[in-house]
Model the fold of this input.
Amino acid sequence: MSDIKPGRLDDITLAAHFSDIAPTLAPSAALVEADRCLYCYDAPCTQACPTHIDVPAFILKIKTGNLKGAASEILSANIFGGACARVCPTDILCEGSCVRHKLDDQPVQIGALQRYATDWVYESGQPLFERKPDSGFLVAVVGAGPAGLACAHTLAREGHKVVVFDAHPKAGGLNEYGIAAYKMADDFAQKEIDYLLSIGNITVRTGMRLGANLHLPQLQQDFDAVYLAIGLGGVKTLNTEGEQLAGVLNAVDFIATIRQASQLASVPVGRNVVVIGGGNTAVDAAVQSKRLGAEHVTLVYRRGEEDMSASPEELAFARQNGIDVRLWARPNRLLGEHGQVNTIELEGTVYCDDRLLGTGTTYTLPVDMVLKAIGQAWLPLGPDGELLEMTDGKIATDDNGHTSLPGVWAGGDCSTTGQFDLTVQAVADGQRAALSIDQTLRANSRAAA
Amino acid sequence: MADLTCHFAGITAPNPFWLASAPPTDKAYNVNRAYEAGWGGVVWKTLGLDPHAVNVSSRYGATRWGGQRIAGLNNIELITDRPLAVNLAEIREVKKLWPDRALIVSLMVPCNEQDWKTILSMVEDTGADAVELNFGCPHGMSERGMGAAVGQVPEYVEMVTRWVKHYSRLPCLVKLTPNITDVRISARAAYKGGADAVSLINTINSIVAVDLDLMAPLPSVDGKGTHGGYCGPAVKPIALNMVAEIARDQETPNLPISGIGGVSTWRDAAEFMVLGAGSVQVCTAAMHYGFRIVEDMKDGLANWMDSQGYGRLDDFIGRAVPNVTDWKYLNMNYDIKAHIDQDACIQCGLCHIACEDTSHQAITREKDSKRHFEVIEENCVGCNLCMHVCPVDQCITMHRVDDGLYANWTTHPNNPAREPEQKPSAA
Ligand SMILES: Cc1cc2nc3c(=O)[nH]c(=O)nc-3n(C[C@H](O)[C@H](O)[C@H](O)COP(=O)(O)OP(=O)(O)OC[C@H]3O[C@@H](n4cnc5c(N)ncnc54)[C@H](O)[C@@H]3O)c2cc1C
Ligand SMILES: Cc1cc2nc3c(=O)[nH]c(=O)nc-3n(C[C@H](O)[C@H](O)[C@H](O)COP(=O)(O)O)c2cc1C
Ligand code: SF4
Ligand code: SF4
Ligand code: SF4
Done:
C-alpha cells in the first residue's frame, strides 16, 4: 500500500528543520574570521568568483567596521550578493581557491562573511545605488530570475528604463521556487528583490509567458533591446517503464511546492523516497523530503562521486542528513499497483570503454515517492523559439550574451554563457549583458546622431 | 633541570617573574593568590601618605589589533586608594606567610625629605625586602608634582634616591619613566644617587583611542578623558631598547635592571634578560589572563634554559648586550638576498605587492603567464620586508651572498666625517 501523506512531523519540528541552516555570524565571530583573510594581492578567490567580487577588499572593510563599504563592494559587483552568500557552492568557487587551504587546510569562510556584510544592508535598508540620468532607452527583460533581475538592475543603474516579464506569479525564478528552503529562509528572496527594485525604473509584469501571451517580434519592435533569461523550464525524462505512475514527480516541482507552502505540514511526502540524479536538485530534494518526515530517503546516481555535479560539501551535507547515497546504480523500471508506484528496480552500472553500461545485477527497493532530478531542459517556446539559434539545447550567444538575433541578448541557465548553471553565473551573465546592451544602445544612438 | 633562583640587587626570589606595582598587587588578597600561583616576587601597589588617593571610573582603555584584545592597555589610575596603615599591616602579614618570595614596596610621596624619612621607617618595619621608587606614573600624580614629574628631572631623581639610601638599609630600585628623551640620563641620576637597581619602563603617555560619538578620548569619565599610561605587548619594543641602552652604558656599569613593559611570555622575559635585565615585572598580561600565566613562564624558561645548556639565570643574563651596537659599526659589506621556497609558497601575492609598491620591485607576479612569485636577485637589496609580510613561516628566507669581509660607516667614502684609513706606516 502506497504511503504518501502530509503532516509526518509536527509544526515545531518542521519549523526547526526548515530554518536557516547557516545563520549569520555573530559580530565577534565575523571579526575573528575576517582576520584570517590575508588580503591577497590579485586574489585567487576574486578570480574564482564568476562576478569577481573583490573579496579581500570587502573583508578588510568588515574588519574596520565599515559595513556599508563592505556591502557596497559586494553588491556593486553582484546585486544578488545576499542570495549568493547563502546558495553558492563556495567549496568549488571562491573558498575553493582560497590560499589558506595551503596554509592551514581551512579556507576563509567567504560566504559567511559575505552574508554578514549583506545582511547589514537588508537590516538597515540603506540605499547603495543611484541611477544615471535617464537615457531614454527602454529594455525588455524576459524572466525575473537572477539573470534577468541582475540585468535589469544594471540597466537601471546605467539610466535605462526596464520592463521585466515573467510567466510565474512571483518574481525571483529559482531563488523563489527552486533553492532549498533552509538556504533562503525568512522569505529572503523577496526581501532581496524588493531592495533590488527600489532603485526605480524597473517594472515587473508577472503572468507574461513568452511564446504564449508575449512574442519576440513584438518585443523587438516595442523595445530598444531584449534580454532573455527564461532559465530551463523543462525536466529531462527517465524514459523508464512506469515513469507515468502516480507518486513519480519532478524534483523541481516537489521543491517548488515546499517553497510556496504556507504550512509545511500540508506538503505530502512518501514514507520511502527515492531521488534519482546527482546534482544540486537531487541533493536538495532528498534532504528536504527527509526533513519533511520521510523515513527512508535513497539518492540513486548512476556514476561515482567525482562525476556528480553536486559539490563535495553538498554531498557530505546529504549524508549528514541521513540520506542513503547509492552510487553506480540506475533505475531499470518502476512498478506499481492501482496506478501508484510501490517498487523501484535498480541495476548496477559500470564504465566500459568510456561507456556506462548496466552490470545486469538488479535489486528492488520499496518506494512510495520517486523524485526525478536528472537535469533541467529547455522548454520549447513554439514559433518564438524557432527564431533563435540554439546550441546543445540552449540559446547560442557570444561572450557578452548576444544572440543570433539583432537587439536580442540572452543569459543564465537558458543560454550557453558561462561555466556553471548556478545563481552566481546567472548574475554574472545578466550584468555582463546589461553592459553590452548599454554600450550597444549608446553607440547606435551616437551613430544615428 | 635549570635553576630559576633569582639574585637581584640583594633580593632573592625563587624565580625572576615578579608582578609589577599595579592593581594585581593592590592588597593581601591578590598578592596571596599571586604567590600561590607561583610568582617569584611582587612589587606592592604604590603607597603614599594619607589621606589616600581616590580613583575615578572608568579607568582603562585598550588597543585591539588583529582580533587581539589588549594589544596595548592604557590606564588613568592613581596610586593605592587605601589607607597607609591597612597596606602596611597587610604587607607585614603577607611577608610572614611567604618568607621565600620577594616583596618589594613601591613608594611615592612628595619631594621632601621628611616625608620620605617617615614612610621609609614604616616600610622597613613590615619586613619587606626592598623599596621601589615610583618616578614614573605619568598621569594624575604627576600633576601633583610626583611620579613622572620627578622622574623627568634627573636632579630630583638623584636627590630623592640619595635620601632613600640615607634613611633606609633596604635595597632601593628606582623605577624610570619612558617619557623622556634619553633614558640613560635618568638611569645615571639614579646610579649617582646610590640606587641598587633600576626598573623600567613605567607607562608611556598616551591617548589610546577616541570615541567618535562622544568626541572624547577613552577611557571616558563622564564625557571627558585625560592622557593615560600605555603598557602591554605594544610597548615591549620600546622597553627592550631602553633596557639595552642602560645595559650597555659605560656610565652605569653593572647597574641591575628589572625589565618591565609588555612581558607576557617566557620568551619575552628571556629577551629582556639577555639584554641585561636580572628580573622581569609583569602587569598587563596578568590583568588580561590572571595569575596562572606564570606557570608557562617558569616552565617555558626552564625548558629553554635546559635546551641551551644554561644552568642558572646568570648564564644568559646580558648575553646579547655586546651585540647591541651603534649603527655606524654595522657591517656594510654584509649582503643578503630573499629567496622564495616555491613548495611552501601559497601564492597570496603579498610579497610582490609590498616590494613592488613600497620597496625595490624585486619580486615577480607571473611566469609563463601563470601566477608565480620569484625574487629578481639583481633588484633585491635585502631589506627583508617580503619575509615579514609573507604569511608562511620559512617560505621566504634570506641568504648571504657577500664575500664575508667587514667594512663600516666610519670609513665609508660617503661619510663626510669618515676616519682616515689606517695606512701601514712606511718605516
Ligand atoms: C532545485 C534547484 C536547486 C538549486 N540550488 C542551487 C544552489 O543551491 N546554488 C546555486 O548557485 N544554484 C542553484 N541552482 C541553480 C540556480 O537556481 C540557477 O542556475 C539560476 O536560478 C539560473 O538563473 P536564471 O535567471 O537563468 O533562471 P531561473 O532562476 O530559472 O529564472 C527564469 C525565470 O524565467 C521565467 N520564465 C521561464 N520561461 C518563461 C517564459 N517563456 N516567459 C516568461 N518567463 C519565463 C521563470 O518563471 C523564472 O522566473 C539550483 C537549481 C535548482 C533547479
Ligand atoms: C622604514 C621606515 C623609515 C622611516 N623613515 C622616516 C624618515 O626618513 N623620516 C621621517 O620623518 N620618518 C620616517 N619614518 C617614520 C614614519 O614617517 C612615521 O612617523 C612612523 O612610522 C609612525 O607611523 P606609523 O605608526 O604609521 O608607522 C620611517 C618609518 C619607517 C617604517
Ligand atoms: S584567497 Fe583567501 S586569504 Fe586570500 S584574499 Fe581571498 S579569502 Fe582572503
Ligand atoms: S628583501 Fe626587500 S628588496 Fe629584496 S625582494 Fe624582499 S622586499 Fe624586495
Ligand atoms: S608572501 Fe609568501 S606565500 Fe605569499 S606569494 Fe609571497 S612567497 Fe608566496
User: Anything to note?
Assistant: Residues 294-308 of chain B form the longest helix (15 residues). The radius of gyration of chain B is 25 Å. Residues 52 and 83 of chain B are 6 Å apart (CA to CA).
